[in-house]
Amino acid sequence: MEEAGSDAPSVVTPLAQWRNDFSRAFQYYLDRSTPHTLERWLGTLALAAIYVLRVYYVRGFYIVSYGLGIYIMNLLIGFMSPQVDPELEILDGASLPTKDSDEFKPFVRRLPEFKFWYAITKAFCIGFLMTFISVLDVPVFWPILLCYWVVLFILTMKRQIMHMIKYKYVPFSIGKRRYSGKKQGISRD
């Protein structure tokens, strides 16, 4: 008597096969989009504009927008934070350089740019889909939510900027650093 499952070929359902094919194709195009930073962010900006127009058009879903804003602020903090928190790492002795004589260590983000972009894009897609679910349209006075979010954003960014100043790191760099060599003075004889 033969055991079922020992040498029998596994049967893949058409739905599982379609899901697998879709996942591979999606990952392929996601990988191809990696070097195109500007185009990715412009696409996300267009998606955000579509979301804002949808919320403006239906004049609702302010709770969804508030939740989306809190989530994006959380992602921004992860994007601006170093991978290893200097406050916790001081105990081990390895930390960001605080003096000019310290060894240079490049800034490594807790949340890389690609994952930051991908999470924001997914958030806007999910938020857009949520605007079609009428149960989520809770009536609120939106100016109060906006003021609360602005205060929360200012306080959070103040704390993050103070952390950046205290440990002397800058999470943004534009372009590649280039070595210019020694500057030679021009002597006039």
TrEMBL record:
<dbReference type="GO" id="GO:0005783">
    <property type="term" value="C:endoplasmic reticulum"/>
</dbReference>
<keyword id="KW-0812">Transmembrane</keyword>
<feature type="transmembrane region" description="Helical">
    <location>
        <begin position="63"/>
        <end position="81"/>
    </location>
</feature>
<feature type="transmembrane region" description="Helical">
    <location>
        <begin position="140"/>
        <end position="157"/>
    </location>
</feature>
<dbReference type="GO" id="GO:0006890">
    <property type="term" value="P:retrograde vesicle-mediated transport, Golgi to endoplasmic reticulum"/>
</dbReference>
<feature type="transmembrane region" description="Helical">
    <location>
        <begin position="116"/>
        <end position="134"/>
    </location>
</feature>
<protein>
    <recommendedName>
        <fullName>Protein RER1</fullName>
    </recommendedName>
</protein>
<keyword id="KW-0472">Membrane</keyword>
<dbReference type="GO" id="GO:0006621">
    <property type="term" value="P:protein retention in ER lumen"/>
</dbReference>
<dbReference type="Pfam" id="PF03248">
    <property type="entry name" value="Rer1"/>
</dbReference>
<dbReference type="GO" id="GO:0000139">
    <property type="term" value="C:Golgi membrane"/>
</dbReference>
<dbReference type="InterPro" id="IPR004932">
    <property type="entry name" value="Rer1"/>
</dbReference>
<comment type="similarity">
    <text>Belongs to the RER1 family.</text>
</comment>
<comment type="function">
    <text>Involved in the retrieval of endoplasmic reticulum membrane proteins from the early Golgi compartment.</text>
</comment>
<keyword id="KW-1133">Transmembrane helix</keyword>
